[in-house]
Amino acid sequence: MTTVSTEEIKALREETGLSIMQCKKALEDAGGDREKARILLQKKGSEIASKKGDRTLGAGTVASYIHASGAIGVLVELSCETDFVAKNPEFKAIAYDIAMHVAAVNPKYLKKEEISEEDRNKVMETFKAEVADKPADMQEKILAGKVDSYFADKVLLEQPYIKNPDQKIQDLVNGAVQKFGERTEIRRYVRFSVSE
User: Fold this and answer.
1) Which residues, at least 6 apart from 179, have a Cβ–Cβ distance to it below 8 Å?
2) Tens digit of pLDDT for each residue in 164-187?
3) Which CATH class, in words, describes the domain spanning 6-51?
C-alpha cells in the first residue's frame, strides 16, 4: 500500500469536499496519483448513489439563480432524505450551482427518460441521411450513436458541468450522495428567459 502525505490528502479533500478517510483511501488505492484517486472517488459515488436509489426523498431545497442581466432566472428543486442535509450550506450550494448551470446551458430535458418517442424519431429521421452511405451492418449503430450524442447536450444530467467539464451533472449529484450519505436527486427545474 502506498503511503500518502497529509498535504496530498488535504489537496484532494479541498477539490472534492469528501471526508479525509475517503480521500486517503482513494489516494492509497491509486498509488498516490491524484487524478486516478479522483476517478476512483467518482466511481464510488455512482455505486453509492445506485445503492440508495430506493430510499424516500422527504426533504430538499429550492435554489434560485438570476443572471446579472436580469433576463434569465432559474429555480431548481434538489431533493434529499432529511432536513438535516437539506439545511446544510454545502447542499444548498450544490443546488445553486445546478441552477446557475441551467441558466447557462438551457437543457430541454432533466433525464433521458423524458425524451419522447416522437422527439427521438424526428432526430433519427434527420440523421438517417448522414449514415446512408455507411456499411449496412454499421448504420444502426452509427445512427444510435449520433442520436445519443445529440440528446446528451439537451439532457441536464448528461451535460458536462460548466464549472468542471470533466464532470457531468449526474456526477455532481452522485458526489452529493457520497458526501452527505443520502439519496439525492434533481426533482425538477424551470428556466425563465425574457428573450424566449
Assistant:
1) 17, 18, 19, 90
2) 998 899 999 988 888 888 889 999
3) mainly alpha
